[in-house]
Specification:
The chain is α+β, with helices and mostly antiparallel strands. The protein is built from three helices and seven strands. The strands form two sheets. Strands 1-4-5-6-7 form a five-stranded mixed β-sheet, with helices on both faces. Strand 4 and strand 5 form a beta hairpin. Helix 1 packs across helix 2.
Length: 134
């Protein structure tokens, strides 16, 4: 069986994984609302994703591959879910193009197929979510 870009090694489809992440984020946002620091949302989202049985890593180290060597420059991805989805959390007034560029760079460096930016500093979370596919 060939594994494609839309399916990970457990067989869970990428849309299912990102859907679970978004549903968990909505639950956290509904309970806490906007206005808190990013760390509070991260801790609660990690709790929700763990309850769902999803494999995740927080503050996943992401080195830069330059000239054939890996250089640890301190990049840390907020969440890596099921080893395939990068999740960047924000608590900002509005998402900017640089946030998209940051996630796209992380996807390329980490060789991951899909990522989510979730900005909790909005009144309706649907307005604070972006999905980027590499």
């Amino acid at each position: 069986m060939r594994v494609t870009a839309v399916e990970d090694f457990t067989g869970m489809k990428m849309n299912e994984i990102t859907g679970e992440i978004v549903r968990a984020a909505v639950k956290v946002h509904s309970a806490l609302g906007p206005g808190l620091l990013e760390g509070a949302y991260r801790a609660c989202l990690v709790h929700e994703l763990s309850k769902l049985g999803l494999r995740l890593q927080t503050e996943w180290a992401l080195p830069v591959n330059y000239d054939g060597i890996l250089i640890d420059v301190g990049y840390r991805v907020d969440l890596l879910v099921e080893e395939v989805v990068i999740v960047e959390l924000k608590a900002v007034n509005r998402l900017m193009p640089i946030h998209d560029a940051q996630l796209l760079s992380y996807l390329k460096l980490g060789r991951k197929p899909v990522g989510l930016i979730i900005n909790f500093h909005v009144t309706a979370l649907r307005n604070g979510i972006r999905r980027i596919v590499l």
